[in-house]
Amino acid sequence: MISLTTKLGELGYFFKGYWKSRASKPVIQNAMAFITGIALSPKKTLAGICRVLSAQASEDQLRKFLNSAPARRQLRRLMDDKSRALFLTAVKRNGNYLYAIYLIFDATYMGRHSMTMEDLFFVGKGAKKTGNHVFLVGLLLLHDGTRIPLRPRLQKSRKTAKKNYKTQIDIVMEMVEGVEFRKGLIVVADSYFLSKKFTDRIVDKGHHYVIAAKRDRVVVEGKARRQLQDYVVGEKIQSRLRKVTLDSFGYRGQNKTKHYSACKREVHINDLGDVAVVFSRRYKKRGAELKMFVSDLVDASLEELVQHYDLRWEIEVFFREVKSLLGFEACRMHKSVAQENWGILVCLGFLHLQALSHKHEPEKWENRRFRGQPRLSDYLLLHAMLIQRKNVEHLLRAGRTRHDRRRIMEYFAIPA
After folding, report:
1. Half-sphere exposure of 416 (CA within 13 A, CB side)
2. How far apart (Å, rounded) are the C-alpha atoms in residues 261 and 282?
3. pTM, rounded to two decimals
4. Is 135 exposed, middle or buried (0-12, 13-18, 19+ CB in 10 A)?
5. Within a 13 Å sphere around the CA of 385, how many CA atoms are in the beta-carbon half?
6. Helix residue spans in 162-279 (DSSP H)
7. Each residue of 39-71: pLDDT tens digit?
8. Which of 5, 318, 369 minimizes the C-alpha distance to 150?
């Protein structure tokens, strides 16, 4: 059982100033209850969340809140404003403005079962139908390891969306449009997002891109047309690869060196223009696949380009953390409104826990050699410790005599 004062204390500070401007008081209170419960509960279902919250929030109350369309509109505004405010604060911290800032895109599924079905899958009793919920997520990555997720966008299937259907590239373009508070970002994505309209939108907004390319991508040299895979055989790219060493640096906060074999070539692609193509694979790793990615940073060095694309894996780490530790894919409700609200609340919870770590453990962020930057598991341990400390304070106040307080301190192993 947690105290209502604890929930309102830390999260009240996180949502300060948003009570009337962006969301109503009931929406904020339900969001605070959900975030607190999902951070502390070992079972990330609604029943598990309400069991942790005790009598402070019922399961029917949270289910009604998650299925509310007006609440979704308020949560969207809240998530957009909060991610922007935290990003502008983080840029000024620890000299992050001196280094490159990355915007990484990828898609993920809300549920485990939706990966095997194309349009519809069946969930629960009565075999109710629900759409194949795919979420597009953007992740802002700063040099000190701060990760700020943008509001996750839900892509509905063609049968569900009908006339309002949007492709993943259309949704990601809208997300780039929304990042108006910073120029010069480096957009990193996999080969699915490599298209002319997406790269043109990135360049128009003053950003740069490093995006993976498929082997059958057509390259024009004079009057000749070739595929990228033809360079591997025709120009013996494998023999031209040289060792590239990425020393320990910020961003992911790992004190280990990574080695790649890579080479760079400047080519002209019809729908992209003059770009730099990098052929890369892991150094001396048996069976390593040769990957290709393109970038408009033609003047950048080979080491810089390899480092840019190497950080794309950070969004996969983010997906693993929010799914395993914050229950991103634990939603079992059928409506798309509930699915989207659940995803937004999980991302808000991630932002809250990270802000909590910045507030209470600044030495871990200022010293980049301190066992690497904290991860979500570190945030959750800190959150549980603060909750326990706050609850003990309430229990101590409830002790009528000093003997009662001494027994409580002995029970919780608190030094006098």
Report:
1. 6
2. 6
3. 0.86
4. buried
5. 12
6. 168-178, 196-204, 228-234, 237-240
7. 888 888 888 888 887 666 788 889 999 999 999
8. 318
